[in-house]
Design brief:
17 strands, eleven-stranded mixed sheet, Dihydrodipicolinate Reductase, domain 2, alpha/beta, Alpha-Beta Plaits, 16 helices, Rossmann fold, 3 domains, six-stranded parallel sheet, binds L-homoserine
């Protein structure tokens, strides 16, 4: 380390929770970070529309401006951190920072999952780095692990709990037997869920993150538009209970898998065997399981959000860039792990009908002779093999004297399209009295 080398200068766009955390951790650990990076790292300029809040957060010696473009235009700034979020102004600023020859660190999963191809191409052409460890699973260094630690492997699949808000809600639903809407309100009151939680509860946030992991794992372009996205809003407390009775927990999983005909890319609630470590990730915690052909199964667990956990990832990117920015651009770790000219053009994302997995089905049926036989007969005709069946007593389901009951069926692996067609037929049976509930099941073995 050259003592005389001046610190690398960083400009920060948007100082909310993560930005403040980045300041605090950089300050607190500055000596150790300098010893690792080989050079000091200083945030010298901050842009935020709320300059009063920004000034209070950063203290003396840091220039605070309301215009983000003033940061990008400053020739002394080497790295721009984008913490604004969203696809709008954040995209323009990231593109402008790249055009100005700045390296970029961002936590913006939405931006990269949707516009990553354009952004990485621009960065490549300009010879700058766009680092995004904080975009997936907050403080867990999963991008580093996939892009560097596991490069020997042919990655087979990734399954992750990569949205803390929904994992908190599901944990509460299970613990307290409450329904989704009640727990969501409580989560908002406690600050676990945003005032507008749409991206979290509808699975969009998790889909952004798994889209990025999929690109890195399989060397394919980011293709958020091809992801299958299902959230947790329709989950009923009774399905969580039935799953438990069958030895499973329901989690919102982001899954990407190398399958026979292409790549699976999907987010949806799934039954996971209760004995799996992933099933025991509770509250707002995140965890990602990666299966590589050489290493086998590896698990990464930690905080997926929050001020200092996310700052930990942002600063890791700052250190990486500080170490590598003088290296020949061709020698740096590629943005998506594979060299741009070696990205795969033959692995397409599979339509959901071609995905093969197993299923939990719940049918509200009339409690009368022959129903079970008709249902199982129809499944047999469709070639769907049953793994387990659970039927509750009618009184337990609908109260004393009830003439309805719940029939729960677990299937073996089947093509989703086959299940779609069979469910349409089952739904038309007169003894099936309510919309059939279908939740996918992932053994993760
Ligand atoms: N809203 C996300 C979550 C954190 O609940 O996990 C940021 O990605």
């Amino acid at each position: 380390m050259t003592e005389s080398m001046k610190p690398i200068q960083v400009g920060l766009l948007g100082i909310g929770t993560v930005g403040s955390g980045t300041f605090n951790v950089l300050r607190r650990n500055q000596e150790e970070i300098k010893r690792r990076a080989g050079r000091g790292i200083e945030i010298t300029m901050v842009a935020d529309l709320d300059t009063a809040r920004a000034s209070a957060a950063v203290g003396e010696g840091v220039q605070v401006v309301s215009d983000a473009r003033a940061v990008i235009a400053n020739p002394d700034i080497d790295i721009v951190i984008e913490l604004i979020g969203g696809y709008g102004i954040a995209k323009q600023l990231v593109m402008e920072a790249i055009a100005a020859g700045k390296h970029v660190v961002t936590a913006n999963k939405a931006l990269l999952a949707v516009h990553g191809t354009e952004i990485f191409e621009a960065a490549q052409a300009k010879g700058v780095m766009v680092a995004f460890e904080a975009a997936v699973a907050g403080g867990i260094p999963i991008i580093k692990a996939l892009r560097e630690g596991l490069t020997a492997n042919s990655i087979q699949w990734i399954a992750g709990i990569i949205n803390g808000t929904t994992n908190f809600i599901l944990s509460e639903m299970r613990d307290k037997g409450l329904d989704f809407a009640t727990v969501l309100k409580e989560a908002q009151r406690l600050g676990y869920a945003e005032a507008d939680p749409t991206f979290d509860i509808e699975g969009v946030d998790a889909a952004h993150k798994v889209t990025l992991m999929s690109a890195i794992a399989f060397g394919i372009p980011v293709q958020f538009a091809k992801a299958h996205v299902e959230g947790i809003t329709k989950l009923a407390a009774q399905d969580i209970k039935y799953a438990e009775q069958l030895g499973y927990r329901i989690k919102l999983l982001g899954i990407t898998r190398r399958a026979a005909g292409g790549i699976e890319l999907r987010v949806h609630p799934a039954l996971v065997p209760a004995k799996r470590l992933l099933a025991n990730v509770e509250g707002a915690m995140n965890a990602v399981v990666v299966h590589g052909d050489a290493v086998g199964t590896t698990l990464y667990y930690g905080k997926g959000a929050g001020s200092e956990p996310t700052a930990s990832a942002v600063i890791a990117d700052l250190v990486d860039i500080t170490r590598l920015h003088t290296a020949d651009a061709a020698q740096r770790v590629p943005h998506l792990a594979f060299h741009p000219n070696a990205m795969s053009d033959h692995l397409d994302v599979l339509p959901m009908r071609d995905v093969v997995t197993s299923y939990y089905l719940r049918l509200r049926v009339a409690d009368e002779a022959g129903v079970l036989a008709r249902v199982t007969g129809l499944l047999a005709n469709a070639g769907i093999s049953i793994d387990a069946v659970l039927q509750r007593e009618a009184d337990e389901v609908g109260g004393e004297g009830s003439t309805q009951t719940d029939l729960i069926i677990l299937t073996h692996d089947t093509k989703e399209g086959t299940v779609d067609d069979a469910l349409a037929e089952l739904q038309a049976l007169p003894s099936v009295l309510a919309p059939i509930v279908r939740i996918r099941k992932e053994e993760l073995s």
